[in-house]
Automatic annotation (TrEMBL):
SUPFAM superfamilies: NAD(P)-binding Rossmann-fold domains. Residues 29-85 are annotated as: Disordered. Residues 39-50 have a biased composition (Pro residues). It comes from the Bacteria. GO terms for molecular function: oxidoreductase activity, acting on CH-OH group of donors. This is Uncharacterized oxidoreductase YghA. Residues 29-38, 51-61 have a biased composition (Low complexity).
Length: 350
């Protein structure tokens, strides 16, 4: 079905999808309290399960077929979107991630840990033996409580610290509170971000620019600056960047600039703080099925085809990134620093 939308808007949406990009919010920010019920669309069918393997053979499945593919059902939510209201609900490893003690006794703070990629990292970290504090916006409390349940079911401590990262004083308090409640801190995952697509540079208001920069860049500086004096040798800092850092979409210029800043920060800071025995790395996802995609009026057409232009033929699910976040935090990766791990579904970057 083709929706009756202006050509320019269709082009915008098609351009985002064609770039293999995290299509951003297309409508103005709206308080979560104003959220409307999700569209009445049937739940997406689960992809085919892997065939039972012959005795002794590994269970394998084609990665193209492992997770839902476009077309996706129509849906949209005001920003910040809730993951629990998405269809299909993103897979963050809730039923699949198995730990093996790789982060035993570690203490992690993850921003944007309520949903999407941060949630997948939080669940994996707990199952690997870490206690985990997550930060999120107050409107995302239901998603955050669900993550806390998974962390506790893994037998680890969950600390929920809602608050707005655009506030410098809050960033300092967040680190302090996480340290106090976890009894220390040795993993910092700077993952929260704001993204809002605009067709023309002139459409990016100073207010939007400020929100994108503060959330994606300033908070990363403020959190890291507050955490560094307390991080022990062996600690890890991980920043979530994007394919947009290197291959910017013309529709999310402010966001792409912040993602390039994330990567410059990772590469430069890594050289500085290895003196302290601290490693710094980045993860650069391509299109992943998360609330970022539905948080503010993404068109039906844009969501329907999301991820279709990657060689995988589908978007990634956050569960597919979890092991990368574990790897970059684990002591076994002691020679890995200043790196950006691309996970783009085969578009050939970085
Ligand atoms: P997401 O919506 O699940 O996570 C983003 C989180 O940012 C939100 O849950 C929210 O808690 C947090 N946030 C936003 N503004 C905030 C503020 N002012 N204060 C506190 N928290 C705030 O979406 P996601 O896709 O999992 O995003 C996680 C990271 O992945 C982001 O850095 C994003 O840029 C990056 N990324 C995502 C994609 C994709 O296709 N989904 C692609 C490339 C990069
Ligand atoms: Mg969220």
């Amino acid at each position: 079905m083709t929706r009756n939308i202006p050509a320019s808007r269709r082009d915008l949406v098609r351009g985002l999808a064609a770039g293999g990009l995290a299509a951003g919010t297309l409508a103005s920010a709206t308080p979560a309290a104003a959220q409307t019920p999700p569209a009445q669309t049937p739940p997406v069918q689960a992809p085919p399960a892997a065939q039972p393997a012959a005795a002794g053979a590994p269970v394998l499945s084609n990665p193209r077929d492992r997770f839902p593919k476009p077309p996706f059902p129509a849906q949209s939510q005001p920003w910040p979107a809730l993951q629990s209201r998405m269809n299909p609900v993103p897979d963050c490893g809730e039923t699949s991630y198995r730990g093996s003690g790789r982060l035993a006794g570690r203490r992690a703070l993850i921003t944007g840990g309520d949903s999407g990629i941060g949630r997948a990292a939080a669940i994996a970290y707990a199952r690997e033996g870490a206690d985990v504090a997550i930060n999120y916006l107050p409107a995302e409390q239901p998603d955050a409580e669900d993550v806390a349940r998974h962390i506790r079911e893994a037998g680890r401590k969950a600390v929920l610290i809602p608050g707005d990262l655009r506030d410098e004083a809050f960033c300092a308090r967040l680190v302090e509170e996480a340290r106090a409640q976890l009894g220390g801190l040795d993993i910092l995952v700077s993952n929260a971000a704001y993204q809002h697509a605009q067709q023309k540079l002139a459409d990016i208001t100073t207010e939007q620019l400020d929100q994108t920069m503060k959330t994606n860049v300033y908070a990363m500086f403020w959190l890291t600056r507050a955490a560094l004096p307390h991080l022990p040798p062996g600690a890890a800092i991980i920043v979530t960047s994007s394919v947009n850092a290197d291959r910017p979409s013309q529709f999310i210029l402010d966001y792409a600039c912040t993602k390039a800043a994330n990567e410059a920060f990772v590469k430069g800071l890594a050289k500085q703080v290895i003196e302290q025995g601290i490693r710094v790395n980045g993860v650069a996802p391509g299109p992943f099925w998360t609330p970022l995609q539905v948080g503010g009026g993404q068109t039906e057409d844009g969501l329907r085809s999301f991820g279709s232009t990657t060689p995988m033929g589908r978007p990634g699910q956050p569960a597919e990134l979890a092991s990368t976040y574990v790897e970059l935090a684990a002591a076994s990766s002691s020679y890995i620093t200043g790196q950006i791990y691309g996970q783009t579904g085969g578009v050939g970057w970085p």
